[in-house]
DNA sequence: GTCTATACACCGATAGAC
DNA sequence: GTCTATCGGTGTATAGAC
């Protein structure tokens, strides 16, 4: 019907694909389901993308670039490093509770990427991005608490990413809020001990 | 050809399905791929199982029941609780490195189960089983170190499961052994602080 | 450029010969 | 009970009218 520029169509399809993956899982993210979600015809899909694989790759790249979620907020209450880190993890947990499907989609996209050698680097980039955001938060938190990381902050960031992933996956399974908060507290404590406080 | 009792055929198909999921991912675990792996004809499948869904459910149930991996070994070197826990996590990590595809398969099965309401309880059971094994290990570790958990050991177990999951997922992505060991150390430290040592 | 209609591969599941 | 052959459905991708 209406003529839509190709780049615009691509982003519309990527957004639709993310909604389908979030709501129904990657197994149901077929080209038909995606164009239906986007309100387009099937042929439009292959006008904008060469293949479904190309769209999935673009989807992963896009969500990774879009990722802005920092684990430590800009303004925090609390004085000790452990308190600041715990507040950050609790903040992440609230974000997870607000939109569980999004984090579930990210996990599915990661595992999907891990299954093909060509796509594995996309998963690696995704986690490098997570680590980068974590590193920024950790540097800020230490600064805020007047503390110094004893080991390179990049290594601490890698640990934080692992803890966050574990928190996410276990909560998605059992939806136990109290247990998730216990994980957040323990993780904050462990991380804080990797720094010297002033 | 040869007549095989139905129960035997079922277990053979389940074993084959696990191999397919491990090697190629759940998306490729079609009935055809599974019977090929098992060396059977397609019709044999539907003689042993009513549907593919039934097999997948059985597969998840089976692998969960089969799960014996305890995070803390029977005989440990080391005296402090933190050391015992770290040794256990390192032992788990060695297990992960020895057969990454199996843990990847378990993660995929979990996420697959999370996507359908009827199967969600299977994922919950899987994690309840993990927690049970973790609890046993933690009780043993505290006993071994002459320590006492300050909070119910079930809660500590839930934290350990989350840390283990995070360790697994991040290592599967970046295969960074040093970073994984750092996670193990931090997690052991955090967990040990949830107990009073004698 | 955008649509409908369709090609072709592969899926789960079954019919029917043996 | 076990096989080969096939059904109906859905997947990705494309042809051809407009």
Short description:
Two copies of one chain form a homodimer. The first copy, chain A, is mainly α and 198 residues long.
| Highest CATH level, the class of the largest domain in chain A | Mainly Alpha
Largest sheet data of chain A: 2 strands, antiparallel
State the strand order across the main sheet of chain A. 1-2
The CATH level-2 architecture of the largest domain in chain A is identified as Orthogonal Bundle
Task: Please give the number of β-strands of chain A.
Answer: 2
Termini separation of chain A comes to 66 Å
Output the radius of gyration of chain A: 19 Å
Structural class of chain A comes to mainly alpha
Oligomeric state: homodimer
Give the tags.
homodimer, 198 residues, mainly alpha, Arc Repressor Mutant, subunit A, Tetracycline Repressor, domain 2, 2 domains, two-stranded antiparallel ribbon, 2 strands, elongated, DNA-binding
Element layout with pairings:
Two copies of one chain form a homodimer.
Chain A: H1 6-24, H2 31-38, H3 42-48, H4 52-66, H5 81-98, H6 100-114, H7 120-145, E1 147-149, H8 153-174, H9 177-192, E2 195-197
Antiparallel strand pairs in A: 1-2
The structure holds a DNA duplex (18 and 18 nucleotides).
């Amino acid at each position: 019907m209406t003529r839509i520029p190709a780049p615009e169509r691509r982003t519309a399809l990527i957004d639709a694909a993310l909604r389908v993956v979030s709501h129904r899982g990657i197994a149901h993210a077929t080209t038909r389901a995606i164009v239906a979600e986007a309100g387009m015809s099937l042929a439009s899909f292959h006008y904008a993308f060469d293949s479904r694989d190309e769209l999935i790759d673009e989807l992963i790249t896009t969500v990774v670039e879009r990722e802005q979620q920092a684990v430590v907020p800009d303004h925090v209450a609390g004085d000790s490093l452990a308190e600041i880190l715990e507040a950050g993890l609790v903040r992440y947990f609230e974000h997870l509770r607000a939109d569980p499907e999004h984090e579930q989609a990210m996990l599915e996209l990661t595992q999907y990427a891990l299954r093909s050698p060509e796509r594995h680097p996309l998963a690696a980039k995704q986690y490098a991005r997570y680590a980068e955001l974590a590193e920024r938060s950790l540097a800020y938190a230490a600064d805020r608490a007047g503390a110094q990381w004893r080991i390179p902050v990049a290594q601490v960031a890698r640990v934080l990413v692992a803890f966050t992933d574990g928190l996410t996956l276990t909560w998605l399974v059992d939806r136990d809020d109290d247990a998730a908060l216990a994980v957040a507290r323990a993780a904050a404590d462990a991380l804080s001990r990797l720094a010297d406080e002033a």
